[in-house]
Amino acid sequence: MSIYGQALPVSFFGESHGPLIGLTIHNMPAGIHLDTKFIESELTKRRPKSSLSTARREPDPFEIVSGYFNNQTTGMPLTIIIKNTDTRSKDYTPNLLRPSTSDFVAHVKYNGANDYRGSGHFSGRLTALTVILGAISQQLLKELGVTVGSHILQISSIKDSEFDYMVNEELLNSLNACDFPVLNQDVQSKMEDVILSAKNQQDSVGGMIETCILGMPVGVGNPLFEKATSIISHLITSIPAVKGILFGAGMDFVTKKGSEMNDAIEINDGRFKTKTNHSGGIQGGITNGMPIVFKTIVKPTASIAQNQDTVDTNSNKNSTTQIKGRHDPAIVHRAVHVVNAMSAYACLELLLKERSYHDIKRTKKSN
Ligand SMILES: Cc1cc2nc3c(=O)[nH]c(=O)nc-3n(C[C@H](O)[C@H](O)[C@H](O)COP(=O)(O)O)c2cc1C
């Protein structure tokens, strides 16, 4: 299913090499003037530009085709499309399944009827839609006092610093302004070198993204299946190439003791607050008012130009394949914008499951 959500349900449609891709957002609050310049600037950050990314060039001109009238949302389904232009479908051979892409499973599940060109509906191309969804979500979240920001924490073995307790809105906004967001500027060139070196060896590299969300109030989420952690994980792992998510102290929970990992509680200005944030802002599935912090693991790009073993679906025999076409030698530096966008949507969905947008905004104003 390419449909998700209860409060602000969304559906995605289209294929990488079809005529267009698009999304519909249902239950969109009425009367919102969409900041189309902001949507455009968010799309620009995800778009492949340099030799660090695929040579496919898509200008992503989006069109709002329903649910928008007199420069504002009508409250009806909001549909936005992007036409595909720079496709080179001849690069794809349907019978040689490309290892660790969606080819194998899609071929079996859909009896070979799937659109294999550029991975069809599985393609990273559809993440342009996530970025549109995220830009709209960020615009609404701003009114509700919530800010989301992400940086590239690691590419291959090159590491940036982690967010610390000094993280603030200004820092997140400065990351949001960057194409290649990192906390320490000196790691950027090392990360770029490692991507280019993998590319030169007809190989690819993976990495990790770190996200921080500020301004989420205490009490959002539920104790069991609808935890804030479950909803964020569901959405983040829906992004192609994402292989894991770690909240708060992440892998430290494996080796450290309870006495080191517990977040002691104190009263601060009459409010309960934790002294540390190893939990990453969520306890028992419910936000505790601290920054929500998590890390997303992104795998190395599957389509590499080296010779690889596979199966030929025409002959049903073992074979080899050497992938042609234009691919990203790393996905992380593009996915960081997708993860940020999806995180914004996750927060909005979580908040709107508690109360309506206009209701939260009204209460915020009167406080
Ligand atoms: C922004 C972005 C760009 C991507 N570009 C490529 C690519 O060029 N080549 C590739 O094999 N996979 C690419 N992917 C990932 C594939 O879509 C994904 O690995 C594939 O569908 C299999 O899904 P899985 O990795 O989640 O198992 C990209 C993903 C994202 C988010």
Description of the molecule:
The protein has 367 residues and is an alpha+beta fold. The chain has helices spanning 36-46, 103-109, 127-143, 169-176, 186-200, 228-236, 252-255, 258-261, 332-354, 357-366; strands at residues 3-4, 10-14, 20-25, 62-66, 68-69, 72-73, 78-83, 147-155, 158-159, 207-214, 242-247, 265-268, 271-274, 282-283, 286-287, 292-298, 307-312, 317-322. The strands form 6 sheets. It has a 5-stranded antiparallel sheet with strand order 1-2-3-7-4, with no helix packed on it. Bound molecules: flavin mononucleotide. Flavin mononucleotide (FMN) is lined by residues 54, 101-102, 119, 122-124, 127, 239-241, 299, 301-303, 327-328, 331, 334-335, 338.
Keywords:
367 residues; alpha+beta; 5-stranded antiparallel beta sheet; 10 helices; 29% helix; 23% strand
Tally of DSSP β-strands: 18
Ligand identities: flavin mononucleotide
Tell me the helix content.
25-40%
Please mark out the parts with pLDDT under 50 across 5 or more consecutive residues, or reply none: none
How do the SSEs run, as a string of H and E?
Answer: EEEHEEEEHHEEHHEHEHHEEEEEEEHH
SS element count, helices: 10
Radius of gyration using CA atoms only: 21 Å
Strand residue content: 15-25%
How are the strands of the biggest sheet laid out side by side? Answer: 1-2-3-7-4
Structural class: alpha+beta
Described by the principal axes of the CA atoms, the overall outline is: globular
The biggest beta sheet reads: 5 strands, antiparallel
What average pLDDT do the residues reach? 94
Measured between the Cα atoms of the first and last residue, the distance is: 40 Å
